[in-house]
Amino acid sequence: MKSFLSLACALLVACAPALGAEKPSPPAHQALTADTPLTTAQGNSFVAPAGWSVRTAGVAVILTAPEGGSHIAIVDVVANDADAAVASGWAAYDAKANWPLKLASDRPSRDGWLQIRGYQYETSANDKRSVSARALKRGDGWTVTIYDMADAVGEKRDAQVELILGRLLPKGYSRESFAGKAAHKLDAARIDALTQFVEDARQQFGVPGMAIGIVQDGNVAYAEGFGVRELGKPDKVDADTRFMIASNTKALTTLMLAKLVEAGKFSWETPVTQVLPTFRLGNADTTAQVKMKHLVCACTGLPRQDMEWMFASEDASPDSVMATVATMQPTSGFGELYQYSNLLAAAAGYVGGHAAHPQQELGAAYDAAMQSLVFDPLGMTSTTLDFARAQRGNHAAPHGQDVDGKTVPASMDLNYADIPNRPNGGVWSNVNDMLRYVQMELDKGLLPDGTRYIGEAPLLARREQQVARGSDTGYGMGLKLDRSSGTLLVNHGGSAFGFISDMLWLPEHNVGAVILTNDDVGGIYVRSLFRRRFLEVLFDGRPEAVESLAVQARRMKEDVAAERKSLAVPADPLLVSKLAARYRSAELGGIDVLRKGSATWFDFGDWKSEVASRQNGDGTVSFVTISPSEGGYEFIVTAAQDARSLVLRDAQHEYVFAEAK
Fold first, then answer.
1. Which of 237, 470, 198, 140 is nearest to 338 (CA)?
2. How far apart are CA 251 and CA 595, in angstroms?
3. Which domain range does residue 604 map to?
């Protein structure tokens, strides 16, 4: 990186005269009171979010988050290639920066940029920071973006970051829009184009199995499976194969709430404490503000706090979930920022279940409400919250990648943490059942026989934007809203350990789709590409998904390989010898350190994983979980004078595991 920046300085001097004639539009140190369209030195357009400050530094436009110390830089340069462009970008933004380069990889071309190359930099866990860059080619010049942000700020302001980087467009370029266009009928040729793409994507990303379903104009246009339910076994996936649908559960939970709104049990504006008097959130002032809609809008300002239900699931229950919610405090104002909270969505389901069945335990009440108000009337006969039932008969097994990037069967253990938290992501379903749900959404509350299942008003209230996720995207109540293609796309995705899914529909065109996969690495890529390919086939759009396929598959493999280089597998025995035998966290429970031959495992009670060791650039040591679908949790070794401890962090929280005797 040092020689990289030296080159940058030379290149910056060479290109400065060419760029000096034009000034970026934002004046120095301008603090913004609203989302503001701006341009770079060469006239490329972007949007700067409300609350951020903007300044110019030569050829660089530098945006600073309200918390300070976290920046995004956009720099126009002239350079021979992407590497030289990024060197110039760093020199213009911060010539003293010295982050080691972890990986440089090509990205799919899009939005009028002829070439895109991404750069990831090594940071240590104690930096609590992420740093990356992109080089985007347009004509004979380049635009470089640099992301240099504290992790807590980056997660909290993720939607605003997307507003900046997702809307950076070359001068004079307009995005492809399907506004005013009619969706084509999905005839055999178009279905064939879509399914061929799906199978190609499945193979390139190593996804063992997936199921796809499409409804159009009130009919099932397609419902089939691809690949196998579990690697090493012959059983094929079909449209009846059950998968965990994970956070797609949220939309079904809010549908149950909508039925209760229609029944007069409460309104979306009802304070939660009027429905469940024992409900608490943060403190008394915060609790008093929370209305029913706030539980499911991702707009209440609560950060993710997932580790507390994933690690401490052994004795968890709906009551303990509600007790954890009572300790949570928003980090942004209501409606100010999109912050996604699984625990608050779980609380929503339990509050709704209590309203429907006040005499029952919270979990049983929720289960009964979902069965009687959602699954039964929609004819979703295979859909269940019962994990034992779900895994009998025709069901998919979870898969993930091992530390070397090979797709292998994965453990279900961590998914069982969703049982006490199930209104957030505990539903199992199949394509045929999910298409019944999507069809009802398209028919605005009608069932196939014309019977009204739910009134339009309570149903469609869930699609009213409660908080922005970008300039063209937002979140309603358990549903995402995307207008970036010029026509409204309603969707929600789901990510469980070993499963990735998505459901989407275009209300203006009476068409929708479902995709369910049994892999949590390749499945993420396939889900995104399928969404784009679906639009391309419907509207004769530019074949961006097809063109992106090979590039994205290569990127996935390069990402895994870059991470693998830093890990010692099995864990370094000298470093392992310095670990205590047992640790305990007040919030997350215990860890038993186990040896299995040359391998070291961390046992968390309900689940366990092999760990690799890593020597960090700042001199610290980390142990990182590497078992398929349970990898990526980094425990930093600390040494006090009288005890040993491990620290685990998410973006906005820190948990200490102290040595236990």
1. 470
2. 43
3. 573-659
